[in-house]
């Protein structure tokens, strides 16, 4: 057996079998070489001279080791905050009412437009550090608070800078069709700007990994988003969609039409939408933080998703308005408590299914030989504890590509 750069022993591992089902190995060992997982086995299956297998052997003494968590839906870069809107919601105002009064997304757009790149980078860096401390190793960051070429470009540049400076993997998503900016009264004119000017320019600059849109009654229609997605597809860019959050608009079917990586929110998803999604391979991304903070009562149809075997991911939706959360693990807890997911489904939702929602499940998201050695060692003894403890830092260490990145000694 080849030598390894590092070997973690006496661990409780949740691995994916060839049938796609999870299997717990304990006590077990996991090794890495050149940044990738190179060994998985029970301790009893290790060669007797296992101390010669690795340059470094770490005994985790029964702790759980999982893949690094993947946050596949965030709005991590923004200016200001919307704490006052939180107070309004406590008084009974709805998300839709606040948006119609000039709050909501447009409030953050105004703050983001006046913020410098340096200020946006500094504030986002702090939020990114919080996610890392919670076991996250890969983060998707959306634009969508600029809504002009200059300001969307600014946000995406900041996201790329964060990716260059951070040990985490960061992917960027262009969300130009997030809301209608105040300087535009003609919706078709703005959609044309997004499709024919913003997209090509930002793509040419290498700032976009995927394209998203907000399709709902307070945002853009199916036809409007269709134009944006057609333009994205012509450039070879994958798409994602905020869909069926406040109404059943047919967004899930639109996402499926373009074989979208994911459709996100989905509180009002219909059976037709679920069937379309599974046929297209589109992942359902649930966002319990937004559901909770907006005090919604319509829950995503979990039974429907299970029945049709739609892969279910979970994400923080970190943003200043509807989901000001900085804990990925808390979202796993809430997905179980609020939506009725099992612990196993929740862990899959923040690992392998979240990787699918980014189109990265061939390289991250599960403990499989050949995948990146993105790991979290947790101060728990069984995986279900990750969705049992409400709050608190359960992370012992975070490993990225075989190298410890948290805590740094």
Q: What does this entry look like structurally?
A:
This protein has 409 residues and is of the alpha/beta class. It has 2 domains: 6-67 and 366-406, Urease, subunit C, domain 1, CATH 2.30.40; 69-357, Alpha-Beta Barrel (TIM Barrel). The protein is 35% helix and 22% strand. It contains 14 helices and 16 strands. Strands 1, 2, 3, 4, 5, 14, 15 and 16 form an 8-stranded mixed sheet that branches. Helix 4 (117-133) packs across helix 5. The longest helix has 18 residues, at 187-204. It is globular, with a radius of gyration of 21 Å.
Top keywords for this entry?
409 residues, alpha/beta, Urease, subunit C, domain 1, TIM Barrel, 2 domains, 16 strands, globular
SSE layout:
Blueprint: E1 6-16, E2 22-33, E3 36-42, E4 57-59, E5 64-67, E6 69-71, H1 83-90, H2 95-100, H3 105-114, H4 117-133, E7 136-142, H5 149-165, E8 169-177, H6 187-204, E9 210-215, H7 222-234, E10 240-243, H8 251-257, E11 262-265, H9 271-280, E12 283-286, H10 288-293, H11 302-307, E13 312-314, H12 328-339, H13 343-349, H14 352-357, E14 375-378, E15 395-400, E16 403-406
Parallel strand pairs: 1-4, 1-5, 6-7, 7-8, 8-9, 9-10, 10-11, 11-12, 12-13
Antiparallel strand pairs: 1-2, 2-3, 5-14, 14-15, 15-16
């Amino acid at each position: 057996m080849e030598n390894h750069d590092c070997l973690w022993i006496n661990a409780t591992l949740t691995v994916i079998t060839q049938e796609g089902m999870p299997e717990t190995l304990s006590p077990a060992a996991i090794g890495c070489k050149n940044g990738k997982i190179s060994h998985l086995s029970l301790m009893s299956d290790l060669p007797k001279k296992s101390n010669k297998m690795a340059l470094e052997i770490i005994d985790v003494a029964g702790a759980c080791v999982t893949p690094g968590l993947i946050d596949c839906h965030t709005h991590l870069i923004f200016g200001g905050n919307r704490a006052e809107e939180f107070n309004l919601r406590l008084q009974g105002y709805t998300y839709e009412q606040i948006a119609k009064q000039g709050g909501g997304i447009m409030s953050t757009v105004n703050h983001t437009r006046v913020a410098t790149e340096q200020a946006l980078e500094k504030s986002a860096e702090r939020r990114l550090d919080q996610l890392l401390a919670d076991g996250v190793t890969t983060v998707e960051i959306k634009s969508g608070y600029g809504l002009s070429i200059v300001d969307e470009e600014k946000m995406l540049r900041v996201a790329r800078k964060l990716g260059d400076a951070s040990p985490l993997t960061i992917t960027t998503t262009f969300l130009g069709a997030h809301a209608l900016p105040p300087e535009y009264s003609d919706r078709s004119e703005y959609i044309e700007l997004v499709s024919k000017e913003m997209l090509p320019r930002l793509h040419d600059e290498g700032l976009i990994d995927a394209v998203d849109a907000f399709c709902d009654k307070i945002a853009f229609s199916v036809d409007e988003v269709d134009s944006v997605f057609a333009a994205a597809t012509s450039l070879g860019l994958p798409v994602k969609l905020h869909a069926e959050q406040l109404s059943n608009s047919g967004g899930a079917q639109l996402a499926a039409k373009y074989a979208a990586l994911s459709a996100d929110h989905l509180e009002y998803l219909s059976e037709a939408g679920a069937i379309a999604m599974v046929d297209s391979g589109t992942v359902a991304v649930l966002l319990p933080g937004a559901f909770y903070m907006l005090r919604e009562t319509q829950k995503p149809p979990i039974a429907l998703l299970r029945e049709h075997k739609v892969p279910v991911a979970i994400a923080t939706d970190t943003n200043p308005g509807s989901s000001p959360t900085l804990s990925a693990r808390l979202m796993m807890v809430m997905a179980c408590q609020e939506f009725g997911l099992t612990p196993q489904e929740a862990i899959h939702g923040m690992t392998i299914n979240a990787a699918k929602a980014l189109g990265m499940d061939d390289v991250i998201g599960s403990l499989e030989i050949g995948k990146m050695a993105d790991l979290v060692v947790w101060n728990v003894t069984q995986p279900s504890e990750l969705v049992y403890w409400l709050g608190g830092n359960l992370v012992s260490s975070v490993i990225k590509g075989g190298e410890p990145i948290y805590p740094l000694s």
